[in-house]
Amino acid sequence: MPGNDHRTPTTSDVPPRPPSTSARGRAAERRVAWHYRLRGYRILARNVRAGGVELDLIVQRGRRLVFCEVKLKEGPGYGDPLDAVDEWKRERLRRGAQAWLLANPAFRHLRVAFEFAAVRPGGIELVSDLLQ
Q1: CATH architecture of 31-128
Q2: What whole-number distance in Å separates Cα of residue 121 and Cα of residue 71?
């Protein structure tokens, strides 16, 4: 009908929705997993639950077993990712690692390390052995 500009919107008409927090978190975990793989680590588990705790990454290289908690904060208004690592978070990671090792006895002989990965726009910073 002439003069009728009503049309059905297409997907190109709708502005893209920013990724959800969980999607950004998964992307950060993929970046950290890739970081480990490039350094010769084998990814044993991602986002696994043990002892009531979600463990972000469990990786191994040789006799070293690493339980890694990934932290992402985007933008200066959100603070540093490592600011989110407190004693409560450390204890949860420790408890989850113990439960995972009980369920996976083949890995008990390895040297266990705990790392926190701070994912920032400029790269990844690994902070090791905060729990030991």
Answers
A1: 3-Layer(aba) Sandwich (3.40)
A2: 12
